[in-house]
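Students often ask why we bother encoding 3D structure as a string. The short answer is that it lets us treat folding as translation between two languages. Here is a chain of 279 residues written in the first language.
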Amino acid sequence: MQQPPLSQRIKAIEAELDVQLFRRKARGVELTEAGQVFLDRARATLAQYDGAFEATRSAARGEQGRLCVGIVPTTPFHPFVPSIIRAFRTAYPLVSLTLDECLGQEALQRLSDGQMDVAFLRAPVESQKLVVNPLLVEPMVVALPSDHALARGDRGRGALALKDLADQTFIIYARQLGPAFYEATMTACMKAGFTPRLGQEAPRIISALSLVAVGLGISLVPACMQRMTMDGVAYRPIKGGGQPKAVLNLASRRGEPSPVVRNFVGLVRRAARNFPSGS
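And here it is in the second language, the structure alphabet:
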């Protein structure tokens, strides 16, 4: 802006505010106290204006916002899940992330209702509303009372065949709200030639391990649960054909519009491809 229009604009602002912004001097001008306040506030307003633009662009890139991640009780013990949560928080520090623990069927309902954005699940899912990404597969192991005959001596140091468990009482867990492991147990035992004798049912896997610890039975659990050290519980791998497996999935809504959710799903899928299979 050239000098005459600039001077006219300053005079118009002074008239509108009914204050003097500049003090005229022999050589140039200087700001009055009112002019200095006006300048500071104007700069702050422009900075907020620029910040609003950048925040809007950042939100559109999924760098800001909220994310609610559902986790079923066994998934925090798998090293992949805490590692990917840490990686996402590092990559997107401005996203407010919350974890919501619940069983499989409850997680599916919350996903469908929009109460959570993504969920790490164990069970296979058939839903037109959801997209399920299989991530990793791990073996299941036997959780035994530590004083059990199969957990002692030479047999206690090696893998067990499923047929060795035919006369044992099986503790099952989350049969109604998270039936993946119940179904895996039943299928594996039947392939091994026997129908398992079912004992007490536990609401969650930690409760099942507590029942194992006091000698009420054995249980098949994902291998990652060996990280859960509990007095009175020993873990043994399973050998032979028909070894039961535990799958880790990530579910999200189909056609998800949130860039935050899309960023999370993309990060998880890439990390799963590179995750060491033996971890």
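Translate back mentally: The chain has a mean pLDDT of 87. Keep this in mind for the problem set.
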